[in-house]
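Quiz preparation item.
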């Protein structure tokens, strides 16, 4: 292609990007209105593929956070009384709008986060499903009315919205993590203050406008992007009207929020760090295991809490597995996610790329061997080569800590007990993956490993209809599934007098 042809091809995408950014809100959404920060403060959002500034956002202050909390608290009573069918239809309209605007959402995610457009479209589909799922669950949040065992009371048990919620989302899945929290809160009848990640607020802002277009009332959803997480979370967490905080992010930050939540005894949902094992047994279908490993490791450039952080492979099949995985990883194309054919985008920022580089250097220093990749890509943006390491010792940081990047360390094991011990040798317990053709062994491993999620012969398991969450220091609570709406409700019991108390029993003549 000539330089002239390349320029002609690039022009339409640049025009589309400019138009998209122009219509994406950059202010704060408080009580149904987009507005500037109270002090006029701003922060910039960068494209990690180029280092260029995409947008300048209003940066919420403590006063703005308090105003957002006021709006949520003031709207709570009327929103809780809104019929479930009305809330359901708002979510369904939002789902439809997400489908209509899928290309805009995908491009926006690629611009601010880096993932290839094709992968971003996958997130749009996944994220949209939370809106559809909880639009259906909104009308199915059942209670019960039963007689007390002694016959003295009737027991009315209902589920009520827990109340105003603070929702804090991460940068790596900017649409899906917003829909996964907003949708069940809307379905349950809770008002919200949403704090998007500083690095990727644009997708959440665009989604918030979709919710407005779908008919959500003023004050129900408030969005306060900010360069300072503390300026938003601290005043809201200290407000006695707040009833719940839901956070997805690192374990250290989650611990801080949990400590802060104790002052007002807040309900908490914490989806924190991971160190997921992918176990390949000697009887596994190796091609299937390699496909699963590619999905579990390289999805989102490895920047996922559900990523296969450690590949634990039986020593009898390690050579075959490594050779086939190396071939797949070598075929990946690193580049700007808006370009055709790119399968691996940049790390989200320079700090993330530098961290991945340190993981590789530490493993090599301890005796690991680089099979594929192993270094950063020079030039603009924050790119790192897809990297496969073998002979990685157990004390390497890449085995002990969450990598959050496109680096796959392979560790071998000799038998089932050793595989389980290696898998459980971490303080985390979110996602895990097991490849074996012996279904009994697979279910047996599920009983033995300490993880909230397990994929059996599959590398992608997240689904809006399934409960998502971890154990140990990977957090508490569940998002998605029937369990997801329960996290935003509280149970109330009303003891009702026996309606038969003053009516004579036909058999005895005495009151029931």
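Solution:
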């Amino acid at each position: 292609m000539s330089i002239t042809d390349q320029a002609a091809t690039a022009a339409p995408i640049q025009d589309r990007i400019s138009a998209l950014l122009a219509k994406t809100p950059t202010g704060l959404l408080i009580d149904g209105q987009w507005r500037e920060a109270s002090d006029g403060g701003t922060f910039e959002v960068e494209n990690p593929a180029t280092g260029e500034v995409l947008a300048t956002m209003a940066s919420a202050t403590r006063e703005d956070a308090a105003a957002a909390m006021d709006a949520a608290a003031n709207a709570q009573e009327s929103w809780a009384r809104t019929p479930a069918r009305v809330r359901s239809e708002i979510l369904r309209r939002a789902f439809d709008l997400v489908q209509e605007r899928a290309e805009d959402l995908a491009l926006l995610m690629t611009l601010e986060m880096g993932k290839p457009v094709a992968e971003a479209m996958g997130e749009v589909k996944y994220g949209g499903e939370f809106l559809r799922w909880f639009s259906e669950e909104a009308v199915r949040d059942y209670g019960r009315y039963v007689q007390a065992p002694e016959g003295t009371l009737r027991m009315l048990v209902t589920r009520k919205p827990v109340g105003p919620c603070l929702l804090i989302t991460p940068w790596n899945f900017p649409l899906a993590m917003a829909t996964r929290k907003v949708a069940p809160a809307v379905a349950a009848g809770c008002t919200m203050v949403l704090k998007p990640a500083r690095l990727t607020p644009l997708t959440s802002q665009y989604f918030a406008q979709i919710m407005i277009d779908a008919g959500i009332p003023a004050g129900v959803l408030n969005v306060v992007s900010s360069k300072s997480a503390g300026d938003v979370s601290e005043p809201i967490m200290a407000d006695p009207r707040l009833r719940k905080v839901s956070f997805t992010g690192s374990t250290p930050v989650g611990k801080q929020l949990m400590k802060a939540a104790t002052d007002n005894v807040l309900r908490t949902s914490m989806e924190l760090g991971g160190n997921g094992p992918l176990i390949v047994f000697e009887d596994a279908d190796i091609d299937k295991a390699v496909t699963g490993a590619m999905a579990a490791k390289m999805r989102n450039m490895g920047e996922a809490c559900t990523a296969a952080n450690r590949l634990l492979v039986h020593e009898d099949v390690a050579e075959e597995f490594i050779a086939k995985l190396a071939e797949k990883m070598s075929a990946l194309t690193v580049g700007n996610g808006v370009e055709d054919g790119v399968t691996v985008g940049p790390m989200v920022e320079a700090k993330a790329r530098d961290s991945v580089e340190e993981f590789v250097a530490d493993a090599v220093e301890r005796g690991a061997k680089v099979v594929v990749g192993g270094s950063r890509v020079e030039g603009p943006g924050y790119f790192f080569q897809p990297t496969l390491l073998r002979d990685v010792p157990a004390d390497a940081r890449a085995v002990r800590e969450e990598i959050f990047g496109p680096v796959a360390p392979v560790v071998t094991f000799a038998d089932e007990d050793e595989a389980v011990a290696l898998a459980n040798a971490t303080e985390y317990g979110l996602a895990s993956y097991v490849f074996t053709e012996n279904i009994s062994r697979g279910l047996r491993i599920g009983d033995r490993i300490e993880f909230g999620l397990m994929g059996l012969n599959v590398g992608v398991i997240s689904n809006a209809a399934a409960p998502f969450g971890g154990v140990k220091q990977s957090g508490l609570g569940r998002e998605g599934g029937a369990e997801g709406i329960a996290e935003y409700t509280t149970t109330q019991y009303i003891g009702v007098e026996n309606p038969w108390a003053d009516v004579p029993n036909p058999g005895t003549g005495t009151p029931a």
